[in-house]
Design a protein that fits this description.
Length: 243
């Protein structure tokens, strides 16, 4: 949930680039938090991460991959057993169905290997543009910019976009950067969203981008309004769980 209104206009290109440069310095080693040992493990982990924290996925996948270490094994798995193993990730019935189906398709259509093209990846069950972008960027080092809830929120708060869809956000942000920096920018925004620019209330006092951020004044105004209504300061600062 985002309780802070987004800015109605984008910042100019110079400000946007300055913001991204600051985030690059703040998160120089930005990378995925998902633990994986192969493109197959990454693919399954990203599917499981929908509406779930990476930390929870990392607690779930070791047992899953110990029992089903390959596409062949997972594709032949009994759905109820997979549901049991991934239940803690939420939406477990749908996710179990997707990862079993995707594994079967990897075996039948791609020789048991994760394909390295967007079209092929998005043909797999449970794989949309965001998941395909993560796999392309992380597993195959292809330029890609995935838009999850953190990226969507932070990009809007910084005024990098006014896009109403993930595709619109992707278009606006990638237009600011050379292709070789798309993946890194995706990670900068995710890490910033998790650490500081949280939902529903960002921690602007700790933010290295606050002086350039068009949302800083919006946040201050919102917090002041809540305080006038008698909302405790601690409640104003409280952040929602990661998504």
């Amino acid at each position: 949930m985002n309780s802070i209104p987004f800015p109605k206009r984008r910042v100019n290109r110079a400000v946007a680039l300055a913001q991204l440069s600051i985030l690059e310095r703040a998160y120089p080693d930005a990378a995925t938090a998902l633990i994986y040992h192969s493109p197959f493990e990454l693919l399954i982990a990203v599917i499981l991460s929908a509406q779930c924290t990476d930390a929870r996925v990392n607690l779930t996948t070791p047992q899953l991959f110990a029992r089903y270490p390959t596409p062949q094994a997972l594709g032949a798995a009994h759905g109820a057993d997979v549901e049991r193993l991934v239940k803690s990730c939420g939406f477990y019935r749908m996710k179990a169905k997707h990862i079993v189906s995707a594994s079967r398709d990897l075996v039948k259509r791609f020789g048991g290997e994760v394909p390295a093209t967007r079209e092929a990846l998005e043909s797999l069950a449970g794989v949309g543009r965001k998941t395909a972008s993560v796999v392309l960027a992380v597993a195959f080092q292809e330029p890609a910019f995935a838009v999850d809830t953190h990226v969507f929120r932070v990009a809007h708060r910084l005024g990098l976009t006014t896009g109403t869809t993930p595709a619109g956000v992707e278009r606006d942000v990638t237009a600011l950067l050379p292709r070789e920096r798309w993946t890194a920018a995706h990670h900068w925004l995710i890490l910033h969203g998790r650490a500081i620019c949280k939902a529903p209330m960002p921690q602007c006092s700790r933010c290295p981008v606050s002086e350039l951020c068009p949302s800083a004044k919006i946040v201050a105004k919102t917090a002041a309004g809540r305080n006038r209504k008698g909302v405790p300061a601690a409640a104003v600062r409280r952040s929602a769980p990661h998504v």
